[in-house]
């Protein structure tokens, strides 16, 4: 893992502090690196009607896209409130969102702050494409 990866993972952990998770108490943060070098963060935002909730990864990618980014190089994801989980991986919906914007590398921070690296192809082997 490079220093840049460590920085991205730290930014994801910091972003998790801003999560709104009163129902699950499962605070997740994400940091995406755009192809232009800018970094965008996001946190999960829950809603009493669960389908209206937004994952940290979708929030971070949405912020990047709103700023004009159309290519995401990598993403770091961290959960700060789930000691019983080894790591919080992006859900299927978020994996597809990452696929849309060409994400190649996914960094997942574990409960003990170690970071695992995966390719999106490894996490979503049969991506939906039009």
Number of domains: 1
Please tell me the overall pLDDT.
91
Beta-strand share of residues:
15-25%
The CATH class assignment is: Alpha Beta
Number of helices: 4
> What Rg is obtained from the alpha carbons, in whole angstroms?
13 Å
Question: What is the third-level CATH name, the topology?
Answer: Cytidine Deaminase, domain 2
Strand order of the largest sheet: 2-1-3-4-5
CATH superfamily: Cytidine Deaminase, domain 2
- List segments where confidence is low: pLDDT < 50 over at least 5 consecutive residues: none
Q: Tally of extended strands?
A: 5
Attribute tags:
alpha+beta, Cytidine Deaminase, domain 2, five-stranded mixed beta sheet, globular
